[in-house]
Amino acid sequence: MAVRGDQTSKMSHIESFKRDVDEGLGAKNKHLPSRYFYDKRGDALFVEIMNTPEYYLSRAELEIWTDQSNRILENLQVNSHGVDVFELGAGDGTKTIELLKVLNGHSYDFKPIDISQNALDKLEDKIKATMPQVRVNGIRGEYFQALKEIQSDRKKIILFLGSNIGNLDPAQSEDFIGKLRSLLRTGDKLVIGFDLKKPKSVVLPAYDDSKGFTRDFNLNLLERINNELGGNFNLALFDHSPEYDEDTGVARSYLESKVDQKVYIKAIGKEYSFQKGEKIHTEISRKFTLEEIKRVASRQNLRIVETFFDSNRFFTDIIFEKEEQ
Prior knowledge:
- By secondary structure, the chain is of the alpha/beta class.
- Helices cover 38% and strands 24% of the residues.
- It has eleven helices and 14 strands.
- The strands form three sheets. Strands 1, 2, 3, 4, 5, 6, 13 and 14 form an eight-stranded mixed β-sheet that branches. Strands 7, 8, 9 and 12 form a four-stranded antiparallel β-sheet that branches.
- The chain is globular.
- The two termini are 40 Å apart.
């Protein structure tokens, strides 16, 4: 697969990184975009997180795709003319491979989309090793940038799994679902994974695992600033500090300064001050109720074709199609 990145795009990445870091660390309530979690080390750490006993999300969704893939395929209504399968935020593709297995016998191309070229390369290697007959065309890009890539003359299946929708705030997520809907034609299907609301005792450990992989995943964002922008963050002077509100269903991740300190970032040419206890917001992960999902679907003129749950009802994958006007 050709890497969709030349020197120009690398420069563009650095300029975007500098802008986002300056904007986030210069704000009254400091924040950094979660998309910068994902470099080679970040990808590897996230795989470790998914394999921790506390991180129920991956196991729950994989159970759905492993145990119910034939029912999912039946409801996707793939026809003899073939299909293009697009996946936003594909990651390592473990769940998707379960669908691709049951698509054998149908004509299809798999088009994973991910911000991380490293993740795309590893996914392509994995699919080639296990399913060499599958045509893979990886697309590197952020979700909103990638929408223009979701074009096909054949039936489309668009996958947005892993509770990625929960990383967007309510306005962003509804706008994004509306944009996805605009790409659907009659017969096309959209599959979205939603993490369901549940007690704090279940949710919070998923973002604060006992082995510290989630801590290291968050701190890796500061390490990237050091490596790519010439920052002088001392990672030992920051704590990983997640929170979860059962009422709103919102989990938030923060990096908290242990001391009063100043950090200089050479590429930006600025120094940033941190007070002891001051936090940098790094990620949001929203949980949903079925009623909330149904209301969004109704507002966006999407019909729920079928709803799939894991055995604990921790997670749901829902197939949508466009309501005919």
